[in-house]
Amino acid sequence: MDAKDYQIIKELQRDGRLTNQELSERVNLSPSPCLRRVRNLEKAGILKGYSAVVDERAFGLGMTAFVRITLERHSGASASAFEDGVQRIDEVLDCYVMAGGTDYLLRVLVPDLQSYERFIRNRLHKIEGIASIDTGFAYGVVKQAQVFPDIQR
Known about the structure:
By secondary structure, this protein is of the alpha+beta class. The protein has 6 helices and 4 strands.
């Protein structure tokens, strides 16, 4: 990837609905080379897809929970079982493997506190091997970026 590819990625992160013509103008390329670069970024798996950014509250998902999970055992089988279980839970938008005292950090979206309780009781508790669940609720958003920071090249 070169500086032009980084420009293309940044513009598409800002607005994934840009036409190739608009994108090529923003990154100062003619349309054909611009489209070729976009296709190459897609083939390389760098551009993984395009989606809409939706307001969670307006959509009816007013509660964001950050859930810290610690497993009973630290084996490959335990980790795989947990990860497979989490993949099937729609309320979990993100699942990170963590270093430190917590094994996983989940970002969970639900409509309200009662829905969160149902999520814990009916979904998360069904996954075997969880030793502890610790939850923090977000009551506001200060920053939620869609565009990656510049990196040293």
